[in-house]
Specification:
Keywords: DNA-binding, Transcription, Transcription regulation. The protein is mainly α. It has eleven helices and three strands. The protein folds into two domains: 64 residues, Winged helix-like DNA-binding domain superfamily/Winged helix DNA-binding domain (Arc Repressor Mutant, subunit A, Orthogonal Bundle), CATH 1.10.10; 167 residues, GntR ligand-binding domain-like (Four Helix Bundle (Hemerythrin (Met), subunit A)).
Amino acid sequence: MDSQQSRVLVQLRDLILKGEFVPGERLAEIPLAEKLGASRTPVRLALASLEHEGLIEPSPTGGYQMRRFTSQQIADAIRVRGLIEGFAARLLAEEGAPRQLLRELHECLERGDQTVNKPTMELDDYTAYVEANDRFHQLIMDGCGNSVLRRIMDMLDAMPFASPSSMLPMQSSMEEGQQWMRLAQRTHHAMVQAIERGQGSRAQALGEEHVEIARMNLDYALERPELATRLMPGMRLVATKNKA
């Protein structure tokens, strides 16, 4: 995949997950090429890749259209994410994590601690924690050295509400969200401790349990679709309890 096609694919996937398009909306090559400042060929190839990922689907009138995801599909993706990431953590624990990787994981823990342990978190603190959280999970997946797991995780990341940042609590108040972030951060510490001690089974169990925060978020979002759509536009792609 050349650099222009890769760039277009990343840009288009980002627009979709940010809720730029609604379910059923047709994705035409020419308007998309103009929007992204690219030629039609990389757009066409990017659309084919996104269909392969399951993010879009063929349109009855030709080309592609946005698809709608069911809450069960997202819940399944979250559960699979826990299995994959838990196994990645187990591999690191059993095979031994390199010192550089452990240093980087501890740096993520320190950044996370600095944000969630403040008396009161502000919006900028939430943003900082999202970045540290994404980095932490990326290090686990990249560090395990299993390219097949990495490819599977990339596909899961393309599902709305199933990425690492979706594990961050989406509550009606920052105070409540901060409490759940502290819980997630404690789990991060426990995972790194298990990896350092070579406790494979414990590392795997913690990775699988960690995604329960994302499942909680999904249930919360389905009960409050207006709030969910405002905080995470990609939720527009997920059928709520009031939609078919």
